[in-house]
Each structure stands twice: as structure tokens, then as C-alpha cells.
């Protein structure tokens, strides 16, 4: 088993949901030998076959646990594991504590990947899909960010930071608007191509304007304050990775955490939630920001950057970027409909953003 | 020589830096005892000695891990000079591990940018190295603009190509290969445009794909070949590759994609092509493919980005696209070449000529050897201040070594030495302390004496770079290469002799710190 290297695996109609190749299951059993656990039952609960990751739920004599095969490079995973340990043990944050191996380590290396066991938090239920729930999520996110400050990654870990990548991300968004346009042009006969061609210019313009505002923003000052000073962003926070437990909201799935400006998570949560509502709502946005602010204060400069980030064509970009993979399938009726919805939702965004734009003026 | 943490040497998996190292090793190892410190690879032993070069391979891939291993190795082994490739962040750790070694650095891209290296560390690293060689003026100018104090240490040494590996398609060795490839991929009777490089936004092959419809209106029987990895693999298809693939499917011109081609087979695709296009959108340091295309006798269309235009002489070996974000600009330049058969042929021949006479590994190696030699000299000066007693007998030792050497043609180097000797003899009856002073003076004199020699003999000479490309200068350099190929070869021979002489000098100075 020594020289096995875990690779992504294919799933098709012949494989069942959550299929995992046998060699990985065998590795999982080997991995568990490193733990002082008596496992009664082991059940796969999710997979990332295209990347080579998986999660099992373990029933043990000492209660339910999770076993995770992390798909990222081991040195990258070390960064996230260190963060989870820091948050749970040092800061007592509500993130699942890591269960140590027999020799006191956070993880086991097998198949060229890191594996680890953590507490399975029960009960966990999604928060209510209303403003109250949204505010709870925001408050918990602010707490998470605040507590993550002070994290020093283990020496062997890669430095995971997205702090410097904001300009590149925006540039990429602008570049890809041109990709969307070109593909729609060359696949003109597809149902979603004409509506896409009709709106892509306006979204590109939004991105360009956003980029201009961004260049004038305090971002470049923020960056100078240093990578670690901002703490970690979760990078995948939402209605499923923040859930209500017995004594508050728990934040799970920390594998992607990286140093970043914390408002990235908040922006994603807000714009995603507005998309779910099919309409931007000033009250929701304001209340969500305030709930966050209560746990992790936002300065006027940071608020300005949040406004800029909210003004970017995030939802259009997020939903259309799949176009490059199989345009003959993607550009169907359904996507034509989706574009319609995105454009309508986007129209309600601008009055809301201008309404709340000056909320932070003169604060502090 | 300390490689980067990314790819192994020899370049089994390609890589510009790895190719560069392998290209110069046969030459530099004739004059020095060279250890190449790089990363492990499953198919390579952790240590081996091939043709006198020691290879030491340590775990890498991730910079932090590699750095630790490099430090450990350098700490436990002694070197006179340590040449670091493209990792300014290795300079200070290496300096700590080897306090007395000379350190030289070569830069292949913008690793001195503030997001790559903390400005304080960068400045300290620059202070520690005696020279920084760069693969283009562009790379040097970026460093200079960030850290003006690096200026006197910078020198451009253009890279090279093995022009026995890369041959024109009409070369006897290549004719069959060219025909086979073209037959196998439906390219017979086609004019084949070649792109070779990573499939990424920065490298910009999408712009070339989008130029095809316009070209198809003007020319019949065109085809585009894209040589680059990550095309086929189902897992891990980047959005960019997917985008280019989606476009290519709809083009009126066949687009052949090869996927990953092993570095030792890539020349076959160059031989099968008729025109080479480099589409860099970013400030490219200077892509190796230009040299390969020249060696393969292909006319080149490249972009006015980074160092790329530094090796293009308009209308002689290729054309430059000024606005590479615009596909029509590519279409224009390509059309200009394709519509003039004699221009096209002439450009290919000129490219081949340049590759052979100028962009060869021997020239790269001899320029690097020269840099090392200068670095060593700085060390001698430093030592002479500290350890006068040892130094006073040095000229004698050197002379003794010289007498053991088989006779060599008289070189400029020897002229310099005779000046040095005469100045030493004048002071032969003085005290040690006075001698020390004179030694320092003669060292300085030697430096001064050598400068015109360097400028006379070596191509391209040390450059005074201005902002932007030092194009006017480069053209001069090339004209010299163009008109006096034979003479240049002779010069190179002389340089080699000079190196040989120097080799003994260095040998006599082993462990001057003892």
C-alpha cells in the first residue's frame, strides 16, 4: 500500500452515488488504524471524485466522528488543519475539534494525501431561510473571522493567501466576459446565445467600472497591513457550511480557508442570498452587514470595498462561466431562462446599492 | 548550481530553466567542478555523477521544503561559488549556510516583484549576490526599476538552443519526420502555423485561434497546430483550455492539438511547421520557443510583450504584433509573411543562421563563465584585505601553475597577466604591507584592463540598458554576428582558452579562507 497515489476517479451511470474506488476504501481502513477509536460503522457521506476527496461518517464507541480525505496538496492541507486546530483549541471557536492520532498528530498521510478525523457535531440543522437566519449566519461569520486572527501556520505548511489576488480575480472576470461573448458568437445557433450576446456588454461594463473603483479603493493599503493581520476567510461559507448546533452556529468544511480580506465571505453570502430571493432587498443587506459588524467591526474603508465587490457582476459570472466546458449543452433553453432571471435580479441590485452606499459615512 | 523547486534536471519534464542548465553544463563543467542541486524525481537517483557533473536531488515541489533541503546541503558541503537560478528567496538562506561563497543569481522571470519577494529581503539578496544575469533586457529592466542599486550587477545573457536538435524541416534528418507527421495529422499540402507553449491566458493562443477566420478568407489550405499540455486530460481541464477547445471546434481551419509532447520530441513539430506564432499577452520574460523556432528555420510572429521583441529583427527573422489582444493584428502580420514566399524563406534562413551563430549554448556558457570569473575576482580583492600574508605569494603560485600548463595560443588574458606581473616585479623588494596595497591596485588594474577586452570579444557585450528595450544596441550585436560568424567563432575559442587559464587560477585559490 506504500506507493499508492490517490487520483481523481470517474463516475458514470454504472457507478452508484458516492462511489469511491476500492483502493481508497482500503487506505481509509489503514488510516483508521492510527486512531484509538473503535469504529462500529463507517458510511461515505460525500465525494469529490473529480478532485480525489471524500468524507465518511464514523460511528464509534466515543460518539460520531468524520473521516476526511483531503484532496488538496498535503502542504496546503496542513495549512487548513493548523487553522482548524487553532480555532477549535486555542480560540474555542465552534468548529469541529480534530481528533488526534495515537501518536498525537492531527492527520495521517496516506496515498499522497492527508486524512484526518474530527468530531461529528450533532445535532446540526440549517438556520431558517429568512432574515433572522441570514443574520445568524452573518454574526457567526464575523465571529469566525475575528477568532481566526493570530493564526500562525505550521512551518511545513504552504502559505495559503488570497489577499493579493483581488486585482487578478477582477481582471480575470473582465477577460472572461470576452470569452463568453466569443463563444456565444461561434455557437450562435444555440438558444441561449442571442440573450447572452444581448447582455454580456452591460455586465462587462459593470466589471470594468468596478475595477476602476477598486483601483481607487483602500485595498492597496489593506494589503500593506500584511497577510496574517486580516485573519482567515472560509472561502466556501454559506447556508450549508454554517449550521445551528446546540449552543450556536457551527462552521464546518474548513479545508479551503486562506488568509484574505474577511468581507469576501460576507459578499458571497449576501449576493448568493439575494440571488436566492430573486431580488435585492435593502433591509436584508443592511441587517446582514450590521449583524456581521457586531461580531467583527467593519471600517468605512472596508465597507467601501464591500460595496465595490457587491457591484461586480458576480452572479452572472458565477453562473455563466461553465459555458466554456460544453457550450453545445450549456447554451440551452434553461440557460436562456437563467440569463433572464439574472438580468432581472441585477436590475433590483442598483437601487439597493445606491441606497446603502453612504451608510458607513462618518462611522467611527 | 541551485535549481528551482519545480522541475527536475535533466529536463525530463521540460522547463525553460532546466533546459538552460542542461544546455550550459557540458561547457561550464569543463572549467569548474560543478554540483547541480535540484529536486528529486522518481526516475532519477538522489545522487549521481555524469560527465563529471555531480547531481544532488532533494525533495522539493514546495518552496519551503526545498529551501530547507538546499540549506542543509549547502551547510554540509563547501563551494567557492553558488549560482542560484530564479529564486532570489534562496539567496539569504544560502548566504547563511555558506558565509564565504560567492553567490551569483540568474533571473528567468519577474521573481523580484513585490508579491513574490518581500522588498526588504529582495534588497538584502541583491546586496549578497555579486552578479545577476537575466534572460532578457526586459527582465533586467524590471529589476532595475524596482531596485536601482542592482543596476551595476545586472547583465543580460540571452539563452540558447541546441540547433542540432532543432533543425529545419528540409534538413536531411528531418524530411521524413516532417512528412510523417504531416501525413499522420492530415496536414499534407497545408501551410502549417505552429504555436507551442502552455495553454494559458497569459500565453494567449486563443487570439491566434480567433485570427483564423480572417486568414481563411485570404489563404487556402491553412492549418493550426497547438503544441501544449493539458489539452486532452479529462481531469483538471482548465477553463482556459476548455475555452480554446470550444473555439477551435468551430473554426474554418483545422486545428490540430497535440497535448503534452516530450521535450526530446518537440523539435519534430517545429520541423513539420511553416510559420511560428508566439501569442504572449503578458509581459513575457522572453519565451524559449523563439530560439527553437529560429533553429527550425521558421519565420516568427511574436508580440511586443516583455523580452520577446528583443530577438526579433523586423522583416529579417520575423514580425512583431503591437496589439496582441487583437486577433486581427495577428491575422495582418501572418498574412504579410504568408503572401510573400521569398520573404518567408528568407526569414527562416535568417532565423536558422542566428540560432547557429549566436543563440548557441556555448556562447551562453562562456558568458556565464565570464560572470563567474568576475565574481571570483571580487572575492580575491576581499581576501587580499584580510589575509595579506597568503596573498603575497599568490602571483608566484599562479606563475608556477602556468608553467605546468601545456603551451596555449597567446590570448588577451595573457597580455593582461603580463601587465600584472610587471607591476608585481616593480614592487618585489617592498614590505608585505606595501605589497598588499599593490596587490589591490593590480587587481583593480586588471579589472580595468579587462573591460575593453570583454567588449571587444564577447557577444552580446555587457549592455547599458535604458528603459524599454535596448533594441538599437541589439541590432548592432546581431549585425556583428551576421557578418562575422567565422570571426565570432574564433573569438569564442579565445574565450575558451581564457577560461582554461582562469581555471588554474581558481584552482590555486581553493579555500582561501583557511
UniProtKB/TrEMBL annotation, chain A:
<feature type="domain" description="Aminoglycoside phosphotransferase">
    <location>
        <begin position="81"/>
        <end position="293"/>
    </location>
</feature>
<dbReference type="InterPro" id="IPR011009">
    <property type="entry name" value="Kinase-like_dom_sf"/>
</dbReference>
<dbReference type="InterPro" id="IPR002575">
    <property type="entry name" value="Aminoglycoside_PTrfase"/>
</dbReference>
<dbReference type="Pfam" id="PF01636">
    <property type="entry name" value="APH"/>
</dbReference>
<protein>
    <submittedName>
        <fullName>CotS family spore coat protein</fullName>
    </submittedName>
</protein>
<keyword id="KW-0167">Capsid protein</keyword>
<dbReference type="InterPro" id="IPR014255">
    <property type="entry name" value="Spore_coat_CotS"/>
</dbReference>
<dbReference type="InterPro" id="IPR047175">
    <property type="entry name" value="CotS-like"/>
</dbReference>
<keyword id="KW-0946">Virion</keyword>
Amino acid at each position: 500500500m506504500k506507493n499508492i497515489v490517490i487520483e481523481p476517479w470517474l463516475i458514470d451511470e454504472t457507478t452508484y452515488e458516492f462511489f469511491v474506488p476500492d483502493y481508497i476504501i482500503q487506505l481509509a481502513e489503514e488510516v483508521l488504524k492510527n486512531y484509538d477509536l473503535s469504529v462500529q460503522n463507517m458510511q461515505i457521506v460525500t465525494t469529490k471524485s473529480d478532485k480525489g476527496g471524500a468524507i465518511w461518517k464514523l460511528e464509534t464507541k466515543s460518539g460520531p466522528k468524520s473521516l476526511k480525505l483531503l484532496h488538496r496538496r498535503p502542504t496546503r492541507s496542513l495549512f487548513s488543519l493548523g487553522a482548524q486546530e487553532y480555532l477549535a483549541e486555542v480560540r474555542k471557536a465552534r468548529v469541529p475539534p480534530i481528533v488526534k492520532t495515537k501518536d498525537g498528530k492531527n492527520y495521517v498521510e496516506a496515498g499522497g494525501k492527508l486524512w484526518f478525523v474530527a468530531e461529528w457535531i450533532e445535532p446540526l440543522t440549517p438556520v431558517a431561510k429568512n432574515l433572522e437566519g441570514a443574520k445568524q449566519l452573518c454574526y457567526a461569520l464575523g465571529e469566525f473571522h475575528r477568532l481566526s486572527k493570530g493564526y500562525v501556520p505550521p512551518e511545513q505548511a504552504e502559505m495559503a493567501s488570497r489577499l493579493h489576488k483581488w486585482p487578478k480575480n477582477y481582471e480575470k472576470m473582465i477577460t472572461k466576459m470576452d470569452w463568453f461573448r466569443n463563444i456565444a458568437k461561434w455557437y450562435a445557433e444555440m438558444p441561449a446565445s442571442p440573450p447572452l450576446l444581448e447582455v454580456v456588454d452591460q455586465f462587462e461594463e459593470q466589471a470594468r467600472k468596478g475595477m476602476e473603483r477598486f483601483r481607487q479603493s483602500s485595498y492597496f493599503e489593506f494589503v500593506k497591513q500584511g497577510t496574517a493581520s486580516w485573519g482567515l476567510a472560509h472561502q466556501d461559507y454559506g447556508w450549508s457550511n454554517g449550521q445551528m448546533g446546540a449552543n450556536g452556529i457551527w462552521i464546518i468544511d474548513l479545508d479551503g480557508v486562506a488568509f484574505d480580506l474577511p468581507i469576501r465571505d460576507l459578499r458571497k453570502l449576501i449576493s448568493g442570498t439575494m440571488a436566492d430571493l430573486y431580488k435585492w432587498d435593502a433591509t436584508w443587506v443592511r441587517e446582514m452587514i450590521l449583524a456581521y459588524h457586531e461580531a467583527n467591526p467593519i471600517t468605512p474603508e472596508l465597507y467601501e470595498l464591500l460595496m465595490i465587490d457587491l457591484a461586480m457582476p458576480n452572479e452572472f459570472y458565477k453562473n455563466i462561466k461553465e459555458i466554456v466546458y460544453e457550450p453545445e449543452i450549456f447554451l440551452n433553453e434553461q440557460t436562456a431562462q437563467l440569463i433572464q432571471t439574472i438580468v432581472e435580479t441585477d436590475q433590483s441590485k442598483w437601487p439597493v446599492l445606491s441606497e446603502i452606499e453612504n451608510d458607513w459615512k462618518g462611522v467611527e | 548550481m541551485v535549481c528551482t523547486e519545480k522541475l527536475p534536471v535533466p529536463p525530463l519534464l521540460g522547463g525553460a530553466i532546466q533546459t538552460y542548465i542542461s544546455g550550459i553544463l557540458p561547457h561550464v563543467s569543463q572549467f569548474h567542478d560543478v554540483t547541480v542541486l535540484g529536486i528529486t524525481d522518481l526516475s532519477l537517483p538522489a545522487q549521481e555523477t555524469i560527465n563529471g557533473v555531480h547531481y544532488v536531488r532533494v525533495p522539493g515541489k514546495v518552496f519551503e521544503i526545498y529551501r530547507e533541503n538546499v540549506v542543509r546541503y549547502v551547510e554540509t558541503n563547501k563551494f567557492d561559488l553558488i549560482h542560484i537560478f530564479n529564486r532570489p528567496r534562496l539567496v539569504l538562506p544560502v548566504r547563511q549556510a555558506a558565509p564565504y561563497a560567492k553567490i551569483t543569481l540568474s533571473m528567468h522571470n519577474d521573481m523580484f516583484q513585490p508579491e513574490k519577494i518581500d522588498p526588504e529581503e529582495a534588497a538584502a539578496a541583491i546586496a549578497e549576490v555579486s552578479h545577476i544575469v537575466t534572460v532578457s533586457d526586459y527582465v533586467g529592466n524590471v529589476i532595475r526599476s524596482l531596485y536601482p542599486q542592482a543596476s551595476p550587477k545586472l547583465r543580460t545573457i540571452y539563452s540558447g538552443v541546441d540547433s542540432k536538435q532543432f533543425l529545419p524541416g528540409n534538413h536531411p534528418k528531418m524530411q521524413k519526420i516532417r512528412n510523417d507527421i504531416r501525413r499522420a495529422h492530415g496536414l499534407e499540402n497545408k501551410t502549417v502555423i505552429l504555436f507551442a507553449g502552455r495553454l494559458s491566458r497569459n500565453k494567449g493562443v486563443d487570439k491566434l485561434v480567433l485570427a483564423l477566420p480572417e486568414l481563411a478568407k485570404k489563404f487556402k489550405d491553412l492549418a493550426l497546430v497547438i503544441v501544449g499540455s493539458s489539452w486532452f486530460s479529462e481531469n483538471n481541464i482548465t477553463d482556459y483550455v476548455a475555452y480554446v477547445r470550444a473555439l477551435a471546434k468551430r473554426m474554418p481551419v483545422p486545428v490540430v492539438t497535440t497535448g503534452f509532447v516530450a521535450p526530446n520530441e518537440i523539435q519534430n513539430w517545429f520541423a513539420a511547421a511553416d510559420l511560428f506564432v508566439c501569442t504572449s499577452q503578458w509581459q513575457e520574460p522572453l519565451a524559449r520557443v523563439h530560439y527553437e523556432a529560429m533553429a527550425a528555420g521558421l519565420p516568427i510572429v511574436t508580440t511586443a510583450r516583455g523580452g520577446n521583441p528583443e530577438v526579433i529583427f523586423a522583416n529579417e527573422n520575423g514580425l512583431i504584433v503591437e496589439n496582441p489582444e487583437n486577433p486581427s493584428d495577428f491575422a495582418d502580420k501572418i498574412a504579410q509573411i504568408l503572401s510573400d514566399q521569398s520573404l518567408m524563406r528568407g526569414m527562416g534562413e535568417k532565423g536558422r543562421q542566428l540560432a547557429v551563430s549566436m543563440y548557441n549554448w556555448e556562447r551562453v556558457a562562456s558568458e556565464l563563465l565570464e560572470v563567474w570569473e568576475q565574481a571570483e575576482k571580487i572575492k580575491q580583492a576581499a581576501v587580499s584585505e584580510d589575509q595579506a600574508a597568503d596573498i603575497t605569494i599568490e602571483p608566484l603560485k599562479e606563475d608556477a601553475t602556468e608553467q605546468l600548463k601545456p603551451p596555449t595560443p597567446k590570448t588577451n588574458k595573457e597580455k593582461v597577466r603580463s601587465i600584472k606581473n610587471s607591476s608585481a616585479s616593480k614592487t618585489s623588494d617592498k614590505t608585505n604591507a606595501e605589497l598588499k596595497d599593490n596587490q589591490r591596485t593590480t587587481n583593480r588594474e586588471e579589472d580595468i584592463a579587462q573591460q575593453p577586452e570583454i567588449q571587444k570579444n564577447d557577444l552580446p557585450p555587457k549592455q547599458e540598458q535604458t528603459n524599454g528595450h535596448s533594441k538599437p544596441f541589439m541590432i548592432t550585436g546581431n549585425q556583428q554576428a551576421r557578418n562575422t560568424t567565422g570571426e565570432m567563432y574564433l573569438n569564442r575559442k579565445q574565450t575558451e582558452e581564457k577560461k582554461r587559464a582562469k581555471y588554474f587560477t581558481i584552482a590555486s585559490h581553493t579555500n582561501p579562507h583557511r
